[in-house]
Each structure stands twice: as C-alpha cells, then as structure tokens.
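SEVERITY: medium
COMPONENT: batch folding queue
REPORTER: lab tech (J.R.)

DESCRIPTION
The queue accepted two submissions in a row. Attaching both inputs and their returned structure tokens so the on-call engineer can compare them side by side.

ATTACHMENT 1
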Amino acid sequence: MSHKQTIIITGSDLAQEAIDLLQAYQLVYAGRQPSEEELVALCQQHNPLAIVVRYGKINGRIMDAAPALRVIAKHGSGIDVIDQAAAAQRGIRVLAASGANAAAVAEHTWAMILACAKSVITLDRRLRAGHWDKAQHKSLELEGRTLGLIGLGAIGSRVAKAGIAFGMKVIACDPWAKQFPEGCEAVDLATLLRQADVVSLHCPLTAQNQGMINRATLAQFKPGAILINTARGGLIEEEALAEALHNGTLRCAALDSFAQEPLTAPNRWQQLDNLILSPHVGGVSDTSYIKMGCAAARNVLSVLQETPAEAYSPL
C-alpha cells in the first residue's frame, strides 16, 4: 500500500508530463462524470491534499470530506464549477490553468464561425443526399463584416486577431480588459449587439452575467446575426435562443457548452438545422491536454510546496 499523500483527479486520465510533475504523490482517478457521492466517498477514503478538477463540480460537502485539502486546481480556466466561497471559508486555494487552452478554444471558435458563415454542415448533408446547390447557395462573406466579442481575455484576444486578419471590423465588450489588440475597438454591450454580424462569447460565468443572452438581449441583435458560445452554457437562456433560431432572428448559432452537461438526447436542439453543436471540447487538443495538465500540476505544487506559483511557459 502506498504511503504517499493523495491527490484526487476528477477524471480518468492526466497527461504523462503532469503525472511526472506529481510523482511524489499518489494520484487517485475519480473517473469520467464523477457524482457528488462518489467524490465524497473518495475524499473520505483518501483525505487528499489536493483535487485536480477535470469533470464534475466541487462543493462544500466534498471539501468537508477531505480535512487535509489545501488546494483545488482546475484543469482549464473555468473555475465556476468550484464553490469558491465555500473554499475561501475553509482556507482552500482555488487556482485555474489560465491561458493553457487559449489557442485550442480560439481555433475551435473560428471553426464554428466559419462553419456557420459558410454553411459547411448543411451543404455537406445536402450533397450527400444528392442535391447540387451551387446555383442557389450563397455563403456569408466575413470580410467587411463586424465581429463582436464579449470578453477579451487570452481566448477573446486570439479570436480578435484572427478576425482582423480576415478583414473584419472587430469590436469587444470587456470592462476588465487591460488592453485591446490593435484594430479592436472597445464598445458597450448594447452597441456590440446592435452592430455585430457575429457575436462570440469569451467571458467567465458569474452570478452577474448568468443568462446574459436572453429574450431581451436577443431582441437587440442585428437581424440575421450569428452567435457562438465556446465559453459557458449558463451565459445563455437556452429556451430564448431556441426561439431566436426557430423564428429566424439569428441566422445560425454554434454551441460548445450547455446549461446542463453532458447533453443527452432527446433535447431542445435536435430539430434546429441552423445550429451546430459540439460536446464542450473547444479547449481539448493534443497540445492543450498537456498544457492544462502541467499548469494544474504546477498550481497544486505551488501551494503544497508553499512556494510562489511557477511561471507557466507554453510547450
């Protein structure tokens, strides 16, 4: 039996490079989609010093099942799945792997923008069914159109630079952004919704912005706009979005995250042909898997070894 102190991973795997960083500890894997009860039981059994969060949520009850717990590290940037107030009350650090998956999410965002603007999936389905739509199809040309970004952190900034390269006018709403890329204009939310041909969400989910895309804000969108969400599902009121897609308020939308995950069938999205879906994989790539694992491991070690967080350098 191992005498090493334990770190729980809420997933079934971790990049080997991250495992190597944590070799002084016993790693216990909770498996994919671990339930609250399973995590409580694992914490009671192993009393971990740290939890690395890949899947699922961490609440106060899980924290209380691990009296030795000192740090909860997110394998990614979205720490809304961790009860941060409960952690603060218990003196537990909560750290994100900020920026580790920025390239992957930005690329996925652009894959979705282009798929919507160029009707990639619709044309593929039509052609497979025997329809040659060359005479009647017209895609949306992005050059000269306006890209509106809600949130301009590491991911949003990358999306902005690509939009500028495509010849788009790029505007962004982010009161906390320290700097805007050259060619990106700061605007308020109402102006962004009114002007943007493509609206893309890149902000963290908070109590203040939950459901920010709703019937009222959708009514402010430019007619025929495209909406992209590679951030958090809770930013959108899903019933209102479904209505906007059904009645043509929006040309198209693409979602990589949802209010309830995993998304299972049947669901409200299945009958909407002007919608593209992916299973919250925007931040997962061959490279980001290693970056996120190593960043989370270094965040854990920065607390357990009581040294300043080691600067993260991309591979």
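ATTACHMENT 2
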Amino acid sequence: MAAEELDALLGGKGWPVPAAGDWDPGASEPARLRGNVCYVVLAVLLNEKDEVLVMQEAKAECYGSWYLPAGRMEPRETVLEAVRREVQEETGLQCRPLTLLAVEERGPSWIRFVFLARPTGGTLKSLQQADTESLQALWWDRETPALPLRSRDILPLMDLALQYRAAPRHPPILPVELPCASVCQRFLLVFTGGNNSLWVLLGTTGGPHLPLATSSPSSSKPGKRLVAALQQLLQRCVARPEVAVRLQGLLGLQHLGKDPGQSDGICFNIVATVGGDGSQQQELAPPALQEPGFSWWEVEDAALKSEVLRRLHTASFLPVYS
C-alpha cells in the first residue's frame, strides 16, 4: 500500500486523507474557510513580451497602488476556481492556471497559493470599467512606467514566473481535488544510503503509510509555521536528536472545499531528507527510531527508487516560503 501511495504522489495524483493523522502538533480541529483559516490565491500572467499582468487597487487602504491579481478564496470554491475568478474580476481577462509556482504560509491559519497562468480571453480592464474589485489593469514591463506598488513582495514572484517559463524546475503542479477536513501535512521523509539505498519513513498504525500530521489553525502559537511539524516528526521518531532534516519542497497539495466547514482543509504532500543533504550519505542505514508507531521502509522497486532519487537530485519540488 505504501508503494501505491508513493507512486501516486510522485505522479501528481494525490492520495486520500484519513480521518485522523499520526499525531497533532496542536489540538486538531476542522478548517473553516473565512473562520479559522484564510486561503489567498495570486496569479502571475506573462505575455509574449515577458510583460506581467498587474491591476490597480480600488480598496481604500491601498487605493491607486498596483499589485498582481490576488484575493481570498470563497466557500465552496476549488483553488483553481478562485484563481480564475480573481483574475477575471480584477483584470477583465480569463485565464488558465498552468502550475503552482510556490506556497507561502504564516502557519495553518494563513496560506497563499502562487500560480503561473496564461490568458485565454476577455478584455483588459480600463478605467471606464473601474469597480470595487479594481480600477484598471495593464501589461507591465517592470520598468516603464515606474508603478507605485502596494507591496514589493510580488517582485520575486514575477522573477520566479519568468525563471519557470524559461527553465521549469518542477513538472506542472495543480491542486488535486480530494477532500480534507483539517490543515495537514503528509511527509515523504527520505534517507539515502551510501550504497545507493533509499529508505522512507512510514507510519504503521492501520497499515503502512506516509506519516500524516494535522495542525490546528486557531490554537497555533503566533509565528508557528507549518514546517515546524517536520522537525517535531524527527524529534518524535529518531533516537538521535542531532540528526538533521532538510525540507525539499512539495510534491503537491490536495483540497476540495465543496462542503463548508467539513472539507475546507488542505493536505500538503511534503518531501524532506534526513541525515544530510539528500545526495550522499556515509551511513548505510537510516537512524534508529524510538517511536513504535513508525518504521523505515527500504524502497527496492527500481522505478520508484529511480524517480525519487531523480527528483531529489534535480530539486524538482514546489518551494514553500514560511
């Protein structure tokens, strides 16, 4: 079963989320959109001249400044539906999301999904069409004119989009529509041995599976990031506290918020390496475990092993910014 789960995640298909995780970094509770969680979508659209689509803000607190099309998800929306809606409302254009570029998080209560998308129709919004969503939109070469930006945090995202279009670091990744009640993280925690062996940490309760942690948005301490659960997993399982763990990125994420209050959660499928940089290891076997609910699984299937090692070698994962 673990091999099927790993194969599905590597193929970008996702995997069903069980009702309970292996542990809860905080007291687990269902995610409630516009209640205890806020999901934001943001889109970078580029034209053939490498100009980026920006819109002029209509909100009182940032009136007249410029930003990428972005906004909060609404109940019963999928992530992709939210992207398409925000782009059309704020710029007048329809779009097709091509891939996630990055995920930004401030803990389980605030998460932003950054997409690369391409225009598929519509008419660029003019000042004559100004409304409460935005004043107008334009294609910007990032030099002339010198636009007053709402925030400079969008500049690295524009660079990321241009870099991805020139040389994609990871295959196209779009959210998988599978329901999830809580904000949770599924870990592909990998140890690579000096003899080219590959080991994966599994949870064993209820059958072998990749470990799953659930997080509570409302009980999270200020500044507590989702990625902290990765270190907690290592501290819980590994007998040697000095063993290092390194976050590599995401294989993807899962969401299907069609039942408000019951399926507003997100499952992040996270890849990390233990014991070094994930490329070379002096030790032949992974570190000993102290937690009976977990075990190491040596991956012997040649195709699975080859794909995991290839992805690690090329850093072919979606970045997470905390």
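NOTES FROM REPORTER
DSSP finds five helices and 14 strands in the chain.
No errors were logged for either attachment.
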